[in-house]
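Bench log, entry 3. Co-assembly request; chain sequences pasted below exactly as received.
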Amino acid sequence: MFRTFRGGLLIGMAVAIAVAAIAITYERYDTKTLKRTIRRGDVLCGVNKGLPGFSIPDDKGNWIGFDVDFCRAVAAAIFDDPKKAKFVPLDASERFKELQSRKVDILSRNSTWSMSRETSNALYFPAVAYYDGGGFMLPASRKIDSGLELNDSKVCVQAETTTQLNLADFFRTNNMKYTEMKFSKLEDVIKAYDSGQCDTFTADISQLYALRLNLGKPGDHVILPDVISKEPLAPVVRQRDDDWMMIVKWTLYAMINAEELGITSQNIDEALKSKKPDVMRLVGTEGAYGEELGLPRDWAARIIRHVGNYGEIYERNVGEESKLKIPRGLNQLWSAGGIQYAPPIR
Amino acid sequence: MTKFRHLIWTLFAAVGLLMAVSPSFAQKPDVGDQPGLIADENVELDPQFKRTAVLYRTSEPPGTIIISTKDRHLYLVQGGGRALRYGIGVGRDGFQWQGLVNITRKAEWPDWTPPPEMIVRQPYLPRFMAGGPGNPLGARAMYLGTTVYRIHGTNRPDTIGTAVSSGCFRLVNADVADLYERVPVGTKVIIRQKPEL
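Structure output for the full assembly:
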């Protein structure tokens, strides 16, 4: 009697612990994002409230930008309809918490991928969508074309930023001296630079191109091609939801592969008739690669048709067809001078 | 007064003649060859086609020229992960090609002898034209291997960024002169085309 009682107690305790563990795991880790997204009928995307070129509402309230288009590509892959992406503007400080609390399915919000961000928030950055990094802007009249010629410069920089630390590293490692002209507000940094108080201005390159538009004479300033730090911007998803993570990751890779293969939103119908094996695997006329993602075979063709390949979304939002006109630089394909590289679909 | 009336009539006649002639102009494909036209060197290039230093990673040694037909860019590899980028005009559809060649000859204000296959397609072209400002080859030419193709200047700076040529790569005269000074005979030229579907 006593024995069975003790045995029962043990079994009961074990069950209770197991249930609690399952409950905790369930609370902590979400593995149903794709299912929930399909049931809800849209993809919820956490985006920046207003960053020209990346995500910003236009005068009619439509979201536009590189990060916005990436989310539309995910929606296109799942629903064959980019309009099924819904945008939730998030502050920098709350973005990871909001993703963790399942307020959004994906963060597509110019977030730099770093180790601690991934490990301490139980998040996952599937792949680099945009390689940003620190750089320098200076007056074209100075005829300087390398960061290594900046010895003894007065450098405008925003205080208390990683940019400030990268600036110090860059000058120290290259045995150069500089005078820091730091300001806590970005507006004050720009004002100081525009009024000629500094020889050069450092910030992330994408930001320099955006800020240059607001200078008195934008055409009088150049941005050096040197990239002095690593700011890999990537979408973010929750850990332990591998199915969802794979969809996000391969959406980006499909767009990069499409550009490499010469498939665009303009010629996608032609591509569907192609007999080239790598084109056929991507657009789904050979194999069933999409099905293993839980999507239809034409998942990538949907992305390309509705949103375009990587180069198209780059040029439209931040490149030559946009106001920003940021050269492709690191974001050019690996075979054309940059480092954007996608594993093959096979 | 009669003089004035005469002038008016001449003007009418001139306009009439122009209108009569222009349709036949329109029938000719605009392939960007306009021998005799003096280049307007003040044409403002789109920023992406202006000469500029860019980040460019490649395993090709400094001094190599890489032409990207798709983007209408010519890169002169500088080493250290950068290149000088020039805007170019490229061959129209069906007149694009790719491969590896060397610069075999360089010439200033080159004469132009359109190759026979070009004369067949565009019989109105001159058989020979001496070098000079009205010459479609512009200020400089760099001959590519044993092909009929060249990297050259232009008297049509407005065609930079377009695909209208017969396979040559054209730069504005200031740019082609700049490039000419930087590259010797023997320079390796890699031409990359957009992939076929």
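Chain A touches chain B at residues 145, 224-227, 260-263, 267, 270-271, 274, 276, 279, 320, 325, 327, 329-330, 332, 336-339 (CB under 8 Å). Chain A is about 40% helix and 15% strand.
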